[in-house]
Structure formats: structure tokens, C-alpha cells
Specification:
Its EC number is 4.2.1.153. The protein is an alpha+beta fold. Helix content is 17%, strand content 35%. Strand 8 and strand 9 form a beta hairpin. The protein is globular. Bound molecules: ligand LRN75BOA.
Length: 284
């Protein structure tokens, strides 16, 4: 039962956190992408996802590995148990320099109950703005969608939505993500959600066929594909929508089509579409 009045009361709540674009964390993300890195290379693809990690103390971590839901917090304490990252829309308005001290202000923009093929859900959208702590303009702004899903209704595994890409891509690449990559990304982001590294929990508690590939990690791989396809052009805007989960060991295919400054992207797994994306590039 979703209490709409309680959801409404949370809209507009804010929180703020500080961090540093720590070069060692950025180097590790590049290592995960199979690349050497130095600060002169600038931020690696979607490196800001490593910043402002959930630093909750251990006694306040819940059974799923996420921080306990707190009615006094920015996000509503939604009772639907299965949390997923559904998508993001990101504007790169300035340059985040490796080593820079940063502040992020976050605000709950909406919390909307929906019913879909997979059951009842609540989509929460949080707007983040990242600036230098010394003040000045927004460097990165992002609207991030988190979905809370109802419990998996046994006995078998949860079926995943099956769709296909809606356009033919010109640029392709492929890779497989295994448990080692998933572990390294969880460690890098300090994201302890057990669906990404605890196979029994992922299957028995949340109904997934395997270890779930993090939405932000898949988006990072898609962004990396975009950078290769765009041949070094700067990305001004990037958005993605996670439409169906991908699991460890699956062959992932990345597709991109570029027309002028606009890019359309997708990721597929062996059953179909996993993620869609769009980007806007700086002049050619
Ligand atoms: C980190 C982290 C967590 C993770 O990384 S979890 C792994 C990454 N995320 C995923 O793999 C999510 C993959 N997506 C899905 O499994 C499905 O999209 C989802 C969310 C289960 C919904 O599927 P349904 O088949 O139940 O949904 P429908 O197609 O029937 O649509 C119902 C309404 O919901 C809207 N909607 C569906 N998907 C999305 C989406 N990705 N983003 C925004 N909205 C979505 C859809 O438009 C329908 O809306 P209407 O207004 O038309 O009713 C961490 O937690 O930190």
C-alpha cells in the first residue's frame, strides 16, 4: 500500500554532501575500463558516479545492502523492497578537474507510483547539482530515476521485459561483464547492494537470474562506446534508461548512431534491449 500523501510530503526535500574528485578512485575506474590513466586525461567516463558515495555506518545498512530507509531522509521510506536505478539525464555544463573539491546538492523532484508489467513500483526522481566547493557555476547536473519494485512473487525467477532496439546502429562494440568487474564497480562506488555480488541473495530474495549489472556501470560502458564512436568530440548531454536487467556472464552489445550533434545509443543482452541512451555532442 503506497501512501501518496507521504510521498507528496517528501517532494522538495534536499540534502548536501561534499567530496573530492580523488585521482586514485578515477584511476581505478579507468583500470576497470582496461586503461591506464593520469590526471591530465581528465575525468574518465561518468567518473562522477564514483563521487559522494553512501557513507552510512554499518549498523544503518539494511538486509539488501543499501542504507536503511529513513522517514526523515530525502528519499521517502518506501516499503516496496526491490530498488533499481532506472535512468539518468545528465548535463555536463563545466569541467570537473581531477583533485577538485566538490559539493553536491540533491533534491527530490518527484515520487510517482506506477503499475507495469512487472507489478507495482514507485519512481523517485532526484535532481543533483555538482559545483566546486569554492562556489561558482554548476559543473554537472543530473536527474536520476530510482525505482522501488514490489517483492518478487515466487516460485520461479522474475521474467525480464523483452524488447528490441528501435533503430539500426552504425557503430558496434561488445563485451562480457563478469563477477570480478561487478565486484570492482561495487567497491569503487561503495554500493553494497547484494544483487551485484551475492548470487544467492539476487536469486532467492529478489528473483534475478544472476548477478545484476549496475545501471551506472552499464551506462559507463555505453558512454565509453559513445566516446569511441564520436572520435573525441566532447559530450554535452547524456541520458540513459535501463529497460531490462543484464546479468553477469552475458554478451553485451553496444550500438550507436551519430547524426550531426545527436547520438542514439543502445545496449542489448542475449534476450534483447537492456538500455537506451541519447547524447548531444559539441560541434564536429
Ligand atoms: C546502482 C543501483 C541499482 C542498479 O543498478 S539496478 C540495475 C540497473 N537497473 C535495471 O536493470 C532496471 C531495468 N529495468 C527494468 O527491469 C524495468 O524497466 C522495470 C523498472 C522493472 C519496469 O518494467 P515494467 O515492465 O514493469 O514497466 P512497464 O514497461 O510496464 O512500464 C510501466 C511504467 O513505468 C515506466 N517505466 C518503465 N521503465 C522505466 C524506466 N527505466 N525509467 C523510467 N520509467 C520507466 C513506463 O514508462 C510506464 O510509465 P507510464 O507512465 O506509461 O505508466 C542502486 O540502486 O543504487
Amino acid at each position: 500500500m503506497i501512501d501518496n500523501a507521504s510521498l507528496e510530503r517528501h517532494i522538495g526535500r534536499e540534502e548536501q554532501s561534499e567530496d573530492r574528485a580523488d585521482p586514485e578512485r578515477l584511476r581505478r575506474l579507468s583500470a576497470l575500463l582496461d586503461r591506464r590513466w593520469s590526471p591530465a586525461d581528465g575525468m574518465p567516463p561518468l567518473g562522477h558516479f564514483l563521487l559522494f558515495p553512501p557513507n552510512e555506518i554499518q549498523s544503518r545498512i539494511g538486509a539488501d545492502g543499501h542504507p536503511l530507509r529513513d522517514p526523515g531522509g530525502m528519499l521517502p521510506a518506501i516499503s516496496l523492497p526491490r530498488r533499481m536505478w532506472a535512468g539518468s539525464r545528465i548535463q555536463f555544463e563545466g569541467i570537473v578537474e581531477p583533485g577538485a573539491r566538490l559539493v553536491r546538492r540533491s533534491r527530490l523532484v518527484s515520487a510517482v507510483p506506477k503499475s507495469g508489467r512487472s507489478g507495482h513500483m514507485v519512481f523517485c526522481t532526484v535532481a543533483h547539482e555538482i559545483r566546486a566547493t569554492s562556489g561558482g557555476p554548476v559543473l554537472i547536473s543530473e536527474q536520476q530515476d530510482i525505482v522501488y519494485r514490489e517483492a518478487h512473487q515466487g516460485p520461479g525467477l522474475a521474467p525480464r521485459p523483452v524488447m528490441q532496439p528501435e533503430f539500426r546502429a552504425e557503430h558496434f562494440s561488445g563485451r562480457t561483464v563478469g563477477p570480478v568487474e561487478l565486484f570492482r564497480y561495487s567497491a569503487l562506488t561503495f554500493n553494497a547492494h547484494r544483487i551485484h555480488y551475492d548470487r544467492e541473495y539476487a536469486r532467492d530474495a529478489e528473483g534475478y537470474e544472476g548477478l545484476v549489472v549496475h545501471g551506472p556501470f552499464l551506462a559507463t560502458l555505453m558512454f565509453d562506446h559513445l566516446l569511441q564512436a564520436a572520435g573525441g568530440r566532447r559530450v554535452l548531454e547524456f541520458s540513459f534508461r535501463a529497460v531490462s536487467p543484464s546479468f553477469d556472464g552475458e554478451d553485451l552489445r553496444f550500438g550507436a548512431t551519430i547524426e550531426g550533434d545527436k547520438v542514439r545509443l543502445f545496449v542489448t543482452n542475449p534476450v534483447g534491449l537492456a538500455m537506451t541512451g541519447q547524447a548531444r555532442l559539441a560541434g564536429s
